[in-house]
């Protein structure tokens, strides 16, 4: 009797709308490892790991994080005792490229990745303190310490690399998207496509406000190129697999169309000479695409993608001359409070705006009150209340986490 597939059931439920992703679910799928195609197993967790059987041992596509390495090792070993021959990084994010140690304790293995992975690791070492701060804020993990020791690739490539391991051919293709060092892995013998974080069962993480440049149009082009493989199984960086060529093609096509729409709108408005504030107000997001189960904005916010396109082509200045060499925030706040006739009216207006549901305006007013009088208990309390309300109203993990962190500030 065939064991029912929990992964297929989860995918079907998400696809049909019987279940929905939320701001945490794409990071916590945690279905036990399953074989999803002959000789191909899939571990679903904080970041997914794929194991592929070859005549020379296993190939791992991604290896997990320091927090999940032991679980990944245990589940892979329960599926196969074969030694690990090669590990392939889809990119250098720490949730994908930090789980080799338990396997290397058994025997040496080869690590393959794009040539820019090493530069990423070098940057992570240089900015460990900053990455500790922003990832603590983004993921709400107390006591997080950003790692400073990495397993660098032994073999790197630039555009494409074909690996022949124990009679199994794996194609590695480089594309820019969430990162500049991204690799997709195509296993033609199994019709399996490993996308890394170029597909995550959520609106693409293409605008993260705390991290380095993302590549919107290249990401769209990568998704369009992946359609050409005719994959029958898509194994994403986060979330469950997608089974069936028609579903795979639809998910890739529509995710690419979503990104391309944002990119084209922003570039057109920039070419018309608009300021960033006006660009953000005028870009529209295709409602029919945002309603798709794999494009819900539960991790990144599409408005952040707009800003990322602007940053790439237009720099950091938003076009408002007052913000080119601006006064300090505290000086502006003090002036606003003075113009309002004191602190109490500003606090009152912040709370009133929040009550009306105008949370963006309420946040700005509460910020001015707190910056003008950092120790005033009413200003401190109003700011906390407003940011708690703002966090509760957000669907994306990034916005929710940043607003929650603001509410918790002392």
Short description:
The protein is α/β, with parallel strands linked by helices. It has helices at 6-16, 69-79, 101-104, 117-126, 128-139, 216-227, 245-271, 276-282, 287-290, 302-314, 329-340, 343-355, 359-372, 377-393, 397-408; strands at residues 34-37, 40-43, 49-54, 57-61, 84-88, 110-114, 155-157, 160-165, 168-175, 182-187, 192-196, 233-236, 242-243. Strand 3 (49-54) and strand 4 (57-61) form a beta hairpin.
Using the coordinates shown, work out and report the CATH topology of the largest domain: Metallo-beta-lactamase, Chain A
CATH superfamily of the largest domain: Metallo-beta-lactamase domain
**Subunit organisation of the chains:** single chain
- Return the string of H and E elements: HEEEEHEHEHHEEEEEHEEHHHHHHHHH
Q: In CATH's first tier, which class of the largest domain applies?
A: Alpha Beta
End-to-end span in angstroms? 58 Å
Low-confidence parts: none
> How many distinct beta strands?
13
Fold and architecture overview:
With 410 residues, the chain is an alpha/beta fold. The protein has 2 domains: 6-260, Metallo-beta-lactamase domain (Metallo-beta-lactamase, Chain A); 327-408, Serine Threonine Protein Phosphatase 5, Tetratricopeptide repeat, CATH 1.25.40. The chain has 15 helices and 13 strands. It has helices at 6-16, 69-79, 101-104, 117-126, 128-139, 216-227, 245-271, 276-282, 287-290, 302-314, 329-340, 343-355, 359-372, 377-393, 397-408; strands spanning 34-37, 40-43, 49-54, 57-61, 84-88, 110-114, 155-157, 160-165, 168-175, 182-187, 192-196, 233-236, 242-243. The strands form 2 sheets. It has a 7-stranded mixed beta sheet with strand order 1-2-3-4-5-6-7, with helices on one face. A 6-stranded mixed beta sheet has the order 8-9-10-11-12-13. Helix 6 packs antiparallel against helix 7 and helix 12 (343-355) packs parallel to helix 14. The longest helix has 27 residues, at 245-271. The protein starts with 5 loop residues before the first helix and ends with a helix. The mean pLDDT is 95.
